[in-house]
């Protein structure tokens, strides 16, 4: 993770309290690079949109049911360890270019792909 991202998480969410966090709203905080959220084991809702994140580690967030990660620089998104995920808001390119890994392993009800062109002629 980028030093600024680590500093932000350490200041706002001390390591000893991360396991009890259920909702994480870190949208538009200037976060960059990789975001490792494995310590947030009880996370249910993640709002990390409008940053400059390139990747997310959600491998330990089995209770995650809502993810808003649009307006970032994600090159792929792995949700294969998030079986309770029902709401996903992401950039259209991730969906149209088949860069969402494990979508079939989720309980997805709402998939909102923002930007881009989902209709191809």
TrEMBL record:
Extract the GO molecular function terms from the UniProt entry.
Answer: signaling adaptor activity
Q: Which residues form a coiled coil?
A: none
Query: Does Repeat show up as a keyword for this record?
Result: yes
Keyword Repeat carried by entry: yes
User: Keyword set for this entry?
Assistant: Leucine-rich repeat, Repeat
Taxonomy, superkingdom? Eukaryota
Protein name per UniProt: 2663_t:CDS:1
Q: Which InterPro entries does the protein's record reference?
A: CDIRP, Leu-rich_rpt_4, LRR_dom_sf
